[in-house]
Amino acid sequence: MCQRERRSWATIDLNQLVRNYEIYKRSLKVDTKVMTVIKANAYGHGDSEVAAALQKHGVSMFAVSNVDEAVTLRQAGITGEILILGYTAADMADVLLEHNIIQTIVSEEHAAALAATGIPVRCQFAIDTGMNRIGLDADNVDACERIIRTYQEKLQICGLFTHFCVADTDQEACVRFTGEQVQKFRAVVDSVADLNLSYIHCCNSAAGIFHLNKGVEFKGIDRIVRLGIILYGLKPDYSNTIPEEIKPVLTWETSVSMVKELNVDETVGYGRTYKATEKRKIATLTTGYADGYNRGLSNCGYVLLHGKRAPIVGRICMDQMTVDVTDIPEARMGDRVTLLGRNGNEIISADDMAQLLGTIGYEVVCCISNRVQRFYI
Ligand SMILES: *Cc1c(COP(=O)(O)O)cnc(C)c1O
Fold it and tell me: Is the CB of 236 within 6 Å of ligand 1?
């Protein structure tokens, strides 16, 4: 780390990332392959660095959300397969071909637009089995088959995939719905089995660990798992239990800029939302919502310093925030503060923070802004 920049920084443990990958992979059948999902700057962890570490470890399939992310990976020296999981306008077809990127086809209209370019882009069809976001409607198997066969001749179709919407929930109705999605997907896969498409996949992190080989029958569509959130050591849903040795790989820290006394009836910050009912000690920190620290944590979240919790008081500002350190007498200017990660015996994870915010760990890490320097160990 640059010794002079001590404002707001994240440390990404690439060894732990690879360990998470290994532990997850070991829970699968030996012949199941893992496509690592590193969209959105690897869920905020830094896509080039994360992909390079995985490639070095032998990973050869990556998924991203758009062309820019895919090209970034190629420029970082990633040579494996790269699948774009969402829509790309057909006028980018030349870029897709140039960088050997696989594009998802979201609809028949999208397939037609890509084919009309005359550029033989490599593609996979998204099949919609209940998410109702993108893909050919699996309820109409005949139409799916016709469209896949039509464009098999015009584009280079190399796969089919679907996406689950409740694979992270073990409620009976959700498990049943996942099973129905599997059946619908399989019907489409079977209708074009003679095409011998290389890439047939459906499982996200949650499905791969909670459903695959566990009751729901995945035969024939279980060759690849798309591993996202658990790679980063976070849970698909707060209620999930994941293997204990899988741990968060990102730590986010900041510094104390000053410590001051607060007298009775004095308030802190914009809107004067916190008022001291007794003498308090306040520490100001050098991170704010422009760094991606969610403003929803105003007067409700906490940070860690000197191995203790310090509750956030007042509103989170753009570049600064304030915490109560009355019970941490040793707090002073220059102290290191943990926003996410372990400090002494205390720990705060993105999942914990997400629960306070009523969101998911995915959003917490994805929102850590570019201003936060990333360091890799
Ligand atoms: C993001 C994404 C994934 C990865 O999901 P996780 O829950 O992070 O494992 C897999 N497939 C698709 C289509 C996605 O968009």
Answer: yes
> 153 near 115, Cβ under 8 Å?
no
Nearest CA to ligand 1 atom 4: 228
Query: pLDDT tens-digit profile of 30-78?
Result: 999 999 999 999 999 999 999 999 999 999 999 999 999 999 999 999 9
- The pick from 84, 124, 163 for probing ligand 1's pocket by mutation, whose C-beta has the most ligand atoms within 8 angstroms, reads 163
**For ligand 1, mutation pick of 34, 35, 37 (most atoms within 8 Å of CB):** 37
What are the pLDDT digits (tens) for 312-365? 999 999 999 999 999 999 999 999 999 999 999 999 999 999 999 999 999 999
What spatial distance separates the first Cα and last Cα of the chain, rounded to whole Å?
A: 10
Provide the angle, in degrees to the nearest 10, between the axes of the packed helices 47-56 and 67-75.
60
Q: Active site includes 151?
A: no
Task: Tell which phi-psi region holds residue 235, choosing left (phi > 0), alpha (psi between -120 and 50) or beta.
Answer: beta
> How many degrees, rounded to 5, is the angle at CA 16 between CA 13 and CA 20?
140
pTM: 0.96
Quickly tell me which residue has 């741990």 as its tokens: 247
Does the CB atom of residue 235 touch ligand 1 within 6 A? no
pLDDT of 3 over the 60 cut: no
CA distances (Å), 185 to each of 63, 65, 130, 134, in order? 20, 22, 10, 14
Please tell me the distance between residue 133's alpha carbon and the centre of ligand 1 in angstroms: 13
User: Annotated catalytic residue: which of 29, 214, 260, 270?
Assistant: 270
